[in-house]
Structures are given as structure tokens and as C-alpha cells.
């Protein structure tokens, strides 16, 4: 009997060893490839990169005219309008500001644990610790709608945040803080680093930067002027910085899980979580090669045609986002050679004159007629103003009197202010007048109007150059190359972000500041609105588009992974069966052959 137990135990041990060896040999992503995005609570994991839309509601959300293949072919303005219509028409429940707190244990938990992950610090708080965290408007109220309804109560926008970090962030724009002051959380997130800041910009940690960028893009496209979000540079240092952060911090399974839960509550999705590629296309940029996204659509070329530039407001008329060898840019750098265009008339500013006034060159059919008299070199001055000199050596300036441009005038400094996305007003600092296309006279002049209408809206174009990442974006190209975190890896659904916030409690929390590199060299234009009344661009018109079917189903699976698991388990069972046979069954048969002799021996003993 003892020998039998020993043999059975040895067989079971052998079987366990075989199974352990088999499952140890399995790649870890075989198990990570299956994710259930719960419709009731966030089941995702922070810093686990999501590189698949399988198992999400995206398949049922982006249907008909809203598929990526269709939308990615649209011009910037067409894309802006389509995404706005999609996210507005499917937004079936308008939540309240109180709802943002009540739903936090579902939208902002991790792995359905009911705790609340705080923005910036990534601290995991309890619902009862609400006195230590508050509801953060990622797009600050004072830079947007100034209220807690509509866009100010949208679950895609409002996030729980540590009160102390939220206070230091204030209404600063997001941008490069140049290793500014570190800001740590307060009770309950004491000791958790939330980012750095200076007098102008707040810079979150690397593994939060993408989240922030995608939220701000959502507010800009979904709400626009309905919540005072007329230009992305109202809240970001520049478009270049936003795109760099998008690439640095890819979507993780937690962010995708939150997208799922919010859709279940209010009906719409944040399209920039499912398709981060739209961020580049929205601003007329090519999608970088090797970028890591849930949809894996890298290297997409922006549509050069269409009517509206790079995602700008409709108030300035229509202009092409890319025309011939020139492309519209979102900001200027010192030394850029630019063509200045009024998009409503498609007229470019020339240094050539007819009488007292500067003539315009029609670019509605392309920039083939552009010469050195229409190409101005932009120089940024130490006080933040700009001066412009044409290719034939003429300054863009004004004399002490008269509103016509005078290349020998002393007032040659210009202040740039936002007129919508990628659109600007140019105000002469010395004279306080604005550059405008004088439509009645069909020439360029300056004036100080009561209302800044479409004649004062300007766009800047630079000659196209090819960036290292395959992006062709003129004088303001986004950073290229592969994103941090690597490229998509076959059938795997998740991988790990390069920059992570420690999951431990304050006693083991790292205290070093963010080590993010400088975020680009592009110099942002000033976005303070002009003092003239009614200067804000008009909101986009809303087309009548039927709402797509709301998503169904949550399960994500990888059939190939399960086939591999079944095969390996079968091998383990066969191997275990062979071990049991030789260690247990076969010895029993040998025993049955010798048994009579043992009985005889026993009889003799008796």
C-alpha cells in the first residue's frame, strides 16, 4: 500500500512538473491578449499599452461614413466637422457635474477595484477620500466655457485629481516647464509626484501626457466654441507639443477601458483614444511611421485637398490645408519663410504695390505664382513680437500715420493672436491696427475695426519639407521616428509603457522629477484674444448626419493564442499520462504476475 501511494504521488508530481514547464514556456502575451472591457467598471490596467481595438465597442461605433478608411481621406476641416458630428450625435446622456464624482468609482478605477485613480499623480484613492481629491477640468474653466455644465460636466473631460496638484496647475497651459518646480500630491496622495510647473506651463509626468492631450482634443472637437474651446493652442503650448505628447504616451488598456465605461454611460466615445492618428490628420500632418496606436494605422498621409486648412474655424472662409508645394502651419519658428494668406479670399500678401496699397496674389488654385515678393522671413523678437521681411528686402511696417504698409516705416513689430485653429490676427504694436485684406479695394492695408471680421483672419504657409518620421508638415513638423514603447508586435494586445508611475503607497513613492526631454523647438504664437469686440471665430456649422449604432459586446479574444494553449495543454496531459503509466500502472501489472508466489510464501509462513 505504501509503495502504491508513493507511485501515485510520484506520478502526480511528474504531471505537475510537466504542466509547470509547459506554462512557463508560454509567452506572457498569450494571457495578456484576452481583455474584457467591462461595461460597468473600468477593467483596464495603467501603463499597459493597448494595441488592438478588438473586444471594444469601436467596431459598432465607427460604421457607415465614419470608418477610418473614409474619414482619413477627408481634409482637416472636413475631418473636424465629421468627428464633431459623430461625437455629438451619439452623446445621448448629458451628465451633471455631480455625476462626474458619482461615476468616478466606475470610470476611473483600475481592474474594477472601485478605487479612484487620480489624474497626474496616478494615486489610487477611495471614494470616501473625496475631501482630498476634486473634479479636474482638464481644459481649465477659465480657458474654456467657465461653467460646470455641458463640456464642463462631460465624463470624457472631467477627471478626479489631487487637490494640491490641481491648485498648482491652476489655469496654466500644458507645455514644457523646463524642469520647473516639482509638485507633489497632498492628503491622501502625499509624496506622489504630479508634475512640474513654471509661471506659464504645467508639465505632467510622461505617462499622463498622452491622456491629457487626447482629452483636450476631445473637448476641442466635441464642444468647440459651445464651451469656449475654439483653438487647441488656448490650452496647449503648441500643436507640436501636443503631438509629441501623443506619441510619447500611447493609449493604455486603462484609458481604453475608461472610454468603454463612459460610452456605456453617456453614449459617445473619445475618438482620439481609439484612433490617435486623427490628431495628426486634424492639423494637416502625416501620421508618423511606427507610431503605436490601438488601430495600428501608422504612416497615413494627410489629404492635401479640401476646404478649410488644418482644422480651423469656419469664420475665416475656406482655404486648402496643403496647396502645391506649400502647407499650412499651426505656429511659427524664428527664421521661417512664410506666405501670409487671407483664407476668405485666398489672397496672399505681396510686397508689391499698386499706388499706396499692397497687392494680393490669388492662391485659390495653387501657389505656382508665388515669388520672392510674397515670401516673408519671420523673425521673433526678444519681447515676443514678430517682424517680417520679404524676399525682395522690404519690411512689413507702418509709418507714424496712414494705414497703408510702408517698407521704410519705423513700426515694424507685429503681435500674433489666435483667430481659431491655425488662424491668426496680426496687430501692429506701434500703431494698434490690424493687417487685413481690404476687400472693397482688392488690396492689403491695416485698420482698427470695431469687429474683427473674416477680412482680418490670416493663415501662414511654408514650403513643404520632409521630416525624419515621414511627416510632411512644412516649417512646423512633428517629431518622427518610432514612438517610445516600440511598435506593434503581431497578435499581442498589450505591452508595457516605458514611463510608469509607481503603484506603491507614499512610503515607497519615487520622488524624482519627470525626466521628459525638451518638447520641441517650435515657438508658439500668442493666443491671447484681441481686445476688439466680437473677435472670436464663429462656431462650425453642424451637418445633419444620422447617429451610428451604439456598441454592443465587450469580449476580446485572440483565437490563435487559445489554439496554442489547447495544443500545449494536450501535450502536457499526454506527457503526464505517460509518466503515470510508467510510475503507477505498469508497476501494478508486474505485481499481479508475482502475486501467487507471495501467497505461497505467506502460506508457508503461516
Describe the fold and architecture.
This protein has helices at residues 2-25, 29-32, 58-61, 68-71, 76-89, 97-102, 104-107, 163-169, 206-222, 239-248, 253-266, 271-274, 277-282, 559-605, and strands spanning 48-50, 116-117, 124-125, 133-137, 158-162, 173-174, 181-184, 193-197, 201-203, 322-323, 326-328, 337-342, 347-354, 357-362, 376-380, 386-390, 414-420, 423-428, 434-438, 443-447, 459-463, 494-496. With 606 residues, the protein is an alpha+beta fold. The protein starts with a helix and ends with a helix. 27% of the residues lie in helices and 16% in strands. It is elongated, with a radius of gyration of 31 Å. Strands 10, 11, 12, 13, 14, 15, 16 and 21 form an eight-stranded antiparallel sheet that branches. α1 (2-25) packs antiparallel against α14 and α9 (206-222) packs across α10 (239-248). The longest helix has 47 residues, at 559-605.
What's a quick, concise take on this entry?
27% of the residues lie in helices and 16% in strands. It is built from 14 helices and 22 strands. Strand 2 (116-117) and strand 3 form a beta hairpin.
SSE blueprint and pairings:
Elements lengths: L1 H24 L3 H4 L15 E3 L7 H4 L6 H4 L4 H14 L7 H6 L1 H4 L8 E2 L6 E2 L7 E5 L20 E5 H7 L3 E2 L6 E4 L8 E5 L3 E3 L2 H17 L16 H10 L4 H14 L4 H4 L2 H6 L39 E2 L2 E3 L8 E6 L4 E8 L2 E6 L13 E5 L5 E5 L23 E7 L2 E6 L5 E5 L4 E5 L11 E5 L30 E3 L62 H47 L1
Parallel strand pairs: 6-9
Antiparallel strand pairs: 1-22, 2-3, 4-5, 7-8, 8-9, 10-11, 11-21, 12-13, 12-15, 12-21, 13-14, 15-16, 17-18, 19-20
Helix pairs in contact: 1-14, 9-10
Amino acid at each position: 500500500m505504501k509503495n502504491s501511494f508513493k507511485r501515485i504521488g510520484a506520478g502526480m508530481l511528474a504531471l505537475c512538473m510537466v504542466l509547470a514547464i509547459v506554462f512557463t514556456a508560454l509567452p506572457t502575451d498569450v494571457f495578456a491578449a484576452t481583455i474584457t472591457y467591462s461595461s460597468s467598471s473600468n477593467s483596464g490596467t495603467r501603463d499597459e499599452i493597448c494595441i488592438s481595438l478588438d473586444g471594444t465597442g469601436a467596431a459598432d461605433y465607427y460604421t457607415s461614413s465614419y470608418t477610418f478608411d473614409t474619414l482619413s481621406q477627408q481634409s482637416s476641416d472636413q475631418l473636424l466637422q465629421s468627428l464633431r458630428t459623430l461625437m455629438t450625435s451619439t452623446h445621448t446622456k448629458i451628465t451633471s457635474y455631480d455625476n462626474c464624482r458619482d461615476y468616478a468609482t466606475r470610470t476611473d478605477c483600475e481592474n474594477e477595484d472601485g478605487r479612484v485613480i487620480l489624474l497626474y499623480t496616478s494615486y489610487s484613492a477611495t471614494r470616501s477620500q473625496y475631501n482630498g481629491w476634486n473634479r479636474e477640468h482638464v481644459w481649465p474653466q477659465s480657458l474654456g466655457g467657465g461653467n460646470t455644465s455641458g463640456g464642463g460636466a462631460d465624463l470624457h473631460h472631467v477627471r478626479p485629481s489631487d487637490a494640491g496638484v490641481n491648485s498648482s496647475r491652476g489655469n496654466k497651459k500644458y507645455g514644457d516647464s523646463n524642469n520647473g518646480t516639482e509638485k507633489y500630491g497632498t492628503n491622501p496622495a502625499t509624496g506622489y509626484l504630479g508634475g512640474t510647473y513654471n509661471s506659464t506651463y504645467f508639465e505632467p509626468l510622461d505617462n499622463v501626457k498622452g491622456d491629457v492631450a487626447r482629452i483636450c482634443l476631445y473637448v476641442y472637437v466635441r464642444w468647440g466654441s459651445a464651451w469656449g474651446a475654439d483653438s487647441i493652442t488656448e490650452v496647449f503650448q503648441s500643436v507640436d507639443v501636443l503631438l509629441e505628447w501623443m506619441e510619447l504616451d500611447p493609449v493604455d488598456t486603462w484609458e481604453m477601458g475608461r472610454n468603454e465605461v463612459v460610452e456605456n454611460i453617456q453614449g459617445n466615445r473619445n475618438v482620439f483614444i481609439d484612433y490617435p492618428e486623427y490628431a495628426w490628420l486634424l492639423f494637416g500632418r502625416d501620421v508618423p511611421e511606427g507610431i503605436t496606436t490601438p488601430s495600428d494605422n501608422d504612416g497615413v498621409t494627410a489629404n492635401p485637398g479640401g476646404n478649410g486648412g488644418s482644422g480651423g474655424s469656419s469664420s475665416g472662409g475656406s482655404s486648402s490645408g496643403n496647396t502645391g508645394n506649400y502647407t499650412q502651419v499651426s505656429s511659427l519658428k524664428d527664421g521661417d519663410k512664410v506666405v501670409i494668406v487671407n483664407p476668405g479670399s485666398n489672397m496672399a500678401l505681396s510686397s508689391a504695390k499698386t499706388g499706396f496699397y499692397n497687392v494680393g496674389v490669388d492662391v485659390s488654385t495653387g501657389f505656382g505664382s508665388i515669388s520672392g515678393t510674397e515670401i516673408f522671413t519671420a523673425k521673433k523678437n526678444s519681447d515676443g513680437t514678430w517682424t517680417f521681411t520679404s524676399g525682395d528686402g522690404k519690411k512689413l511696417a507702418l509709418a507714424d500715420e496712414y494705414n497703408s504698409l510702408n517698407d521704410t516705416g519705423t513700426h515694424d513689430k507685429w503681435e500674433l493672436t489666435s483667430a481659431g485653429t491655425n488662424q491668426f490676427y496680426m496687430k501692429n504694436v506701434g500703431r494698434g491696427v490690424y493687417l487685413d485684406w481690404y476687400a472693397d479695394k482688392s488690396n492689403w492695408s491695416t485698420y482698427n475695426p470695431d469687429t474683427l471680421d473674416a477680412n482680418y483672419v490670416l493663415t501662414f504657409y511654408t514650403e513643404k519639407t520632409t521630416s525624419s518620421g515621414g511627416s510632411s508638415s512644412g516649417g512646423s513638423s512633428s517629431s518622427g521616428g518610432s514612438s517610445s514603447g516600440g511598435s506593434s508586435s503581431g497578435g499581442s494586445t498589450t505591452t508595457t509603457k516605458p514611463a510608469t508611475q509607481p503603484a506603491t503607497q507614499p512610503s515607497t513613492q519615487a520622488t524624482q522629477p519627470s525626466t521628459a526631454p525638451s518638447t520641441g523647438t517650435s515657438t508658439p504664437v500668442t493666443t491671447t484674444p484681441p481686445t476688439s469686440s466680437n473677435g472670436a471665430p464663429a462656431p462650425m456649422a453642424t451637418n445633419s448626419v444620422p447617429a451610428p449604432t451604439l456598441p454592443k459586446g465587450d469580449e476580446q479574444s485572440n483565437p490563435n493564442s487559445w489554439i496554442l494553449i489547447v495544443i500545449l495543454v494536450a501535450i502536457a496531459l499526454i506527457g503526464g499520462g505517460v509518466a503515470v503509466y510508467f510510475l503507477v500502472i505498469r508497476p501494478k501489472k508486474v505485481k499481479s504476475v508475482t502475486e501467487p508466489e507471495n501467497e505461497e510464501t505467506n502460506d508457508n509462513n503461516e
